């Protein structure tokens, strides 16, 4: 049985919400009663996702945002608070993958772009989300790292560096804000059935049988399983949990 939460009169921001894990989490927040501000840099998928929630009777607002641009991030959070009066939850999920590259040949432009979105983007989101939460004296933030934040893999140095960075960012900020009533955690998804993973498969960058074999549960993960972990980390059920990097990876990192 899936747990249910009552998030009525609460407000959530989800980045990378146009598809995949972000969309599943935005839907889960909405179904639990929260007003949801969805953000994505792809305006078409964002519009479709937002319309899907509003047509189902949920409170939802779509705001286009490239998280690598701090001014856009600040405007996103300001819009959320102006529209709904507060900010209670955030899932900083927006991220990009990079093609496998020999560490000796990795272009600086690739490293900079991956870290601009995956690490600096999370930093900017958390920075601006913390301001209204600090004023309220309450809130919960979940940052999206990866199993790549816990282990290394050949050819993935830039991506894994960004995801390791998210965990360090999360732990330090969690210690700083715990006394102020704000809990900050990270999740570390394994290989999940998302458009990004589908793109990696199509490009030959991911071997599905190998990925399945590496997850002891014997299958790829689902976006709704990530959403369930995020909502738990935002709920009173995890009130004593902060600063963790929670693997949601089918057992990959338990080996």
The helix-and-strand class reads alpha/beta
Low-confidence stretches: none
- CATH T-level topology: Rossmann fold
Give the terminus-to-terminus CA distance. 27 Å
Give a short account of the largest sheet.
7 strands, parallel
User: What is the CA-atom radius of gyration, in angstroms?
Assistant: 17 Å
Shape: globular
User: Which architecture would the CATH scheme give at its second level?
Assistant: 3-Layer(aba) Sandwich
Question: How much helix, percentage-wise, in residues?
Answer: 40-55%
Average residue-wise pLDDT: 96
CATH class category label: Alpha Beta
Secondary-structure element order, N to C: EHEHEHEHHEHEHHHE
State the helix count: 9
Beta-strand portion reads 5-15%
Query: CATH superfamily membership, which one?
Result: NAD(P)-binding Rossmann-like Domain
Strand order of the largest sheet: 3-2-1-4-5-6-7
Oligomer: single chain
Instruction: Tell me the number of structural domains.
Output: 1
Strands, total number: 7
Pfam families: adh_short_C2
EC number: 1.1.1.47
Keywords: Oxidoreductase
Enzyme class: oxidoreductase
Describe this entry's structure for a reader.
- This protein has 255 residues and is an alpha/beta fold.
- It has one domain (11-254): 3-Layer(aba) Sandwich (Rossmann fold), CATH 3.40.50.720.
- 45% of the residues lie in helices and 15% in strands.
- It has a 7-stranded parallel β-sheet with strand order 3-2-1-4-5-6-7, sandwiched between helices.
- Strand 2 (35-40), helix 2 (43-55) and strand 3 (60-64) form a beta-alpha-beta unit.
- It is globular and about 50 Å long.
- The protein starts with 10 loop residues before the first strand and ends in a 7-residue tail after the last strand.
- The model has no long low-confidence stretch (mean pLDDT 96).
